[in-house]
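pls design
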């Protein structure tokens, strides 16, 4: 069972961001942090194993601009409104567990949506480009069902969410239900 929590705050402010990874920090500090006060950005003590940056990150994850970035944040037009949305793996201030949270744009608002369950693992996220993608059932891992079709047709950017060298899923915005649908692409 997947848990989805929605927070809405109206913002009457505009903001400018700096190019590169500072864009992610600027967005979170100016907008995101006010929507999810119980979460914070990863700090140096959180950087272990696959999140640790040496000569660049060991896994080359990209965002919607095609640029390499840290494995715990990404951006794209996830809800199809032609505005940039952001996704982060944030750290709980209460118990240090990690949580996937997306910030969707809407007029002058941003909406924070918590996706999936919290975890202790170093997961990664990246922006999935539009196109047809085989799911785990389409690759033969299990029989296809209505909820788990053999392939999905991604119309706008989606959020790829994965454990490094292991399981992977994708969160796709469904305009009809106005929610994200999770599809497994590997076990």
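designed seq:
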């Amino acid at each position: 069972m997947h848990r989805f929590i929605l927070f809405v705050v109206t913002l009457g402010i505009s903001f400018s961001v700096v190019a590169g990874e500072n864009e992610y920090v600027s967005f979170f500090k100016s907008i995101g942090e006010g929507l999810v006060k119980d979460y914070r950005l990863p700090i140096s003590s959180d950087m272990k194993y696959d999140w640790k940056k040496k000569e660049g990150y060991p896994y080359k994850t990209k965002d919607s601009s095609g640029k390499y970035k840290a494995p715990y944040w990404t951006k794209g037009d996830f809800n199809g409104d032609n505005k940039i949305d952001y996704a982060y793996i944030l750290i709980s201030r209460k118990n240090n567990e990690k949580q996937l949270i997306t910030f969707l744009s809407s007029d002058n608002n941003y909406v924070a949506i918590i996706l999936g369950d919290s975890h202790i693992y170093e997961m990664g996220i990246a922006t999935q480009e539009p196109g047809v993608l085989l799911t785990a059932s389409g690759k033969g891992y299990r029989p296809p069902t209505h909820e788990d079709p053999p392939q999905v047709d991604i119309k706008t950017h989606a959020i790829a969410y994965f454990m490094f060298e292991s399981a992977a899923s994708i969160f796709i915005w469904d305009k009809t239900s106005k929610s994200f649908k999770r599809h497994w692409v590997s076990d």
